[in-house]
């Protein structure tokens, strides 16, 4: 697709931070979640796919010593899609992996999120359950890791 | 005159069919599924992702299955696959300091903030084969301990507060991050390119070199300052949005090796460092990488280059197992004409040798 179409993304009312957080959650949704949320969505808009879903690579970077100059660590597969709803809203999505349909639906929800009237529904029905699952998983892993923490103790030998 | 010899098509076709048959093996045994490989042979999958230099667990599992468990063949398959895809861009550097930690240990500080978190480690196991694993015995869920999240600062940051250790590596002002998948390597290399090569280098090769530095070839008195394994967020700047997009999370292993350094006329004595960062859970590889990184900084730190592990061209040129196997295994391909030429040459040399010895025999007899 041409750059003109990409630049035609309508400005949304929300902050970039809000949309960034929403897109981060959509990227980490499972394909099953996206399909389920779309199936449950009332009054589905007409969706035109402007780009993709297409799979490519990103070169992932690290930093020397953890915080120094960047270096190229290795690549990862990424899938992206851009859609336009029948009201003109354009949505984008990028996610690690090769799940085209998941990413296309993520782009649809990104477009819906940008409409003020739909945002709350996207937050409640889509983003909240994804956030909940990710948080539970993170907390679970943290607790499992914490159980392997070494509690050092000192052996005192003798009476004095 | 060059005569092409044709033939073998049927043999090759049948060989590949036989390969497919042997790969499947006994049909009464269920076929292995990719999710089983991803879940239960996870460290093998991680190695294929690291050395294949492509983070995609399902693809790596497919490669392992297709390669019948031959890791280097699987890595080769992954490398070949990546050439078929377009590149969308370079991500922002991952922040390992903000890792969701699954394991984190330090061999230098017992009581470091955040503690020693052993995680799912083979360390302290007795390396006795467990017959119970031969069957599908139920496995207990892991224990959990609920506690308030503690900060886990990097050991190297703790040490750097009083100047006892050098800073994270910087490159000369204005240098661009090198990418060996785009530009052929030309020696000498900057540290960024060396790290890229080491990150995808063969675990066994780097392990052997790392071991050699411990045994006295380029000794560097290493300590495992910190090893951490966990997930980091991946972010990408894209043209269509004016904020960096989160693409998801990947698991990496990071090793901060802390090494002794005497100091020089310009620098006071301080600890130097070697760095390792690898896709997936791969402690051995990240430690080997860090030891090799440190050894390869000999030139930068003004050390004598006396050992193989310090020789950048030697290490980096031979660390890639796809390149190595390509050149070693190409010896299997027909070299009939080459060999005929050599055979002819040896025949002629032998004939000359025979003539020469006959002549000298005659001379000796005459004397």
Automatic annotation (TrEMBL), chain B:
<dbReference type="GO" id="GO:0016829">
    <property type="term" value="F:lyase activity"/>
</dbReference>
<protein>
    <submittedName>
        <fullName>Carbon-phosphorus lyase complex subunit PhnI</fullName>
    </submittedName>
</protein>
<dbReference type="InterPro" id="IPR008773">
    <property type="entry name" value="PhnI"/>
</dbReference>
<dbReference type="GO" id="GO:0019634">
    <property type="term" value="P:organic phosphonate metabolic process"/>
</dbReference>
<dbReference type="Pfam" id="PF05861">
    <property type="entry name" value="PhnI"/>
</dbReference>
<keyword id="KW-0456">Lyase</keyword>
């Amino acid at each position: 697709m041409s750059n003109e179409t990409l630049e035609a993304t309508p400005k949304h009312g929300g902050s970039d931070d809000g949309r960034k957080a929403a897109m981060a959650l959509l990227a980490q949704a499972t394909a099953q979640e996206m399909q389920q949320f779309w199936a449950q969505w009332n009054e589905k808009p007409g969706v035109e796919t402007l780009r993709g879903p297409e799979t490519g690579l990103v070169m992932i970077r690290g930093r020397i010593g953890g915080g120094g100059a960047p270096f190229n660590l290795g690549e990862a597969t990424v899938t992206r899609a851009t859609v336009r709803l029948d009201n003109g809203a354009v949505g984008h999505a990028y996610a690690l992996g090769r799940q085209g349909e998941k990413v296309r639906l993520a782009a649809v929800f990104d477009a819906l999120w940008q409409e003020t009237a739909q945002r709350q529904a996207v937050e409640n029905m889509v983003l909240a359950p994804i956030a909940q699952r990710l948080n539970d998983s993170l907390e679970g892993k943290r607790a499992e890791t914490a159980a392997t923490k070494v509690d050092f103790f000192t052996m005192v030998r003798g009476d004095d | 005159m060059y005569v092409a010899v044709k033939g073998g098509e049927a043999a090759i076709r049948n060989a590949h069919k036989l390969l497919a048959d042997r790969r499947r093996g006994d049909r009464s045994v269920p076929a292995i599924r990719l999710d089983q490989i991803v879940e239960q042979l996870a460290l093998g999958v991680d190695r294929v992702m690291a050395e294949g230099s492509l983070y995609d667990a399902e693809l790596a599992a497919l490669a392992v299955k297709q390669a019948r468990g031959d890791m280097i063949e699987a890595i080769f398959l992954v490398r070949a696959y990546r050439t078929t895809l377009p590149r969308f861009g370079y991500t922002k550097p991952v922040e390992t300091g903000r890792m969701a930690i699954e394991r984190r240990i330090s061999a230098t500080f017992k009581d470091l903030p955040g503690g020693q978190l052993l995680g799912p480690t083979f360390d302290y196991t007795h390396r006795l084969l467990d017959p119970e694993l031969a069957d599908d015995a139920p496995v207990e869920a892991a224990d959990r301990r609920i506690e308030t999240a503690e900060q886990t600062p990097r050991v190297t940051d703790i040490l750097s507060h009083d100047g006892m250790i050098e800073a994270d590596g910087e490159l000369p002002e204005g240098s661009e991050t090198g990418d060996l998948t785009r530009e052929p390597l030309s020696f000498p290399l900057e540290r960024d390119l060396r790290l890229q090569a080491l990150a995808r280098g063969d675990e066994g090769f780097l392990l052997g070199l790392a071991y050699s530095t411990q045994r006295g070839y380029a000794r560097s008195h290493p300590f495992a300052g910190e090893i951490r394994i966990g997930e980091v967020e991946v972010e990408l700047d894209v043209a269509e949005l004016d904020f960096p997009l989160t693409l998801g999370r990947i698991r990496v292993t990071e090793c901060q090796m802390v090494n002794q350094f005497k100091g020089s006329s310009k620098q006071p004595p301080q600890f130097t460092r070697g760095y390792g960062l690898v896709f997936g859970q791969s402690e051995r590889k990240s430690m080997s990488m860090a030891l090799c990184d440190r050894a390869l900084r000999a030139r930068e730190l003004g050390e004598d280059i006396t050992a193989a592990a310090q020789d950048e061209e030697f290490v980096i040129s031979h660390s890639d197992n796809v390149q190595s196997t390509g050149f070693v295994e190409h010896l299997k391909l027909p070299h009939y004409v080459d060999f005929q030429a050599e055979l002819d040459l040896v025949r002629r040399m032998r004939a000359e040798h025979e003539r020469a010895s006959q002549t000298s025999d005659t001379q000796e007899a005459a004397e």
